[in-house]
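To: structure subgroup
Subject: Chain for Friday's discussion

All,

I'm putting the inputs and outputs inline so they're searchable in the archive.
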Amino acid sequence: MKIIEYDSIYDEQIKELLVDLQNYLIDIDDWHTQILSNNYRENYFKMDLELINKQDGKIFLAIEDTKIIGLVLGAVNPNDEIDKLTNDCAKIGNVLELIVKNSSRGHGIGKLLLNEIETYFKNINCKRINIEVFGPNKSALNFYLKNDYTIRDYIVSKKI
């Protein structure tokens, strides 16, 4: 297994991983609001690529032979007017996606990918890293907590 930077020859496999993640989120969504729209596969990946290109981001892939077994996508958070008024405006890296194939979980691949994007963010002088975790995804939350992340913000929701 090796970690490489994004290469477009893997686009179709990346799209499949994104679909797998969305299907997992649908399965654990007790409110049943998560969906997989007809154009999700193409448009979600396109949206991620646009963010990566526009916001100083990177994609790293975990490859075994010629197959992707995991990926991480990260981009730098642009500071807005609220940020400028309320905080130190430090450069913040955002992990947008971290996915490891089910069959490859438990072998440290997620940690290697997370370390890779953390190193990238450190090298471009980010001072913090944010990761948004879907509330019902307890395994993801536990993974990040085990990797020295702290719950810093909460979003509370009410279904009406």
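Points worth raising on Friday:
Strands lie at 2-5, 58-64, 67-77, 92-100, 128-131.
The two ends are 46 Å apart (CA to CA).

D.
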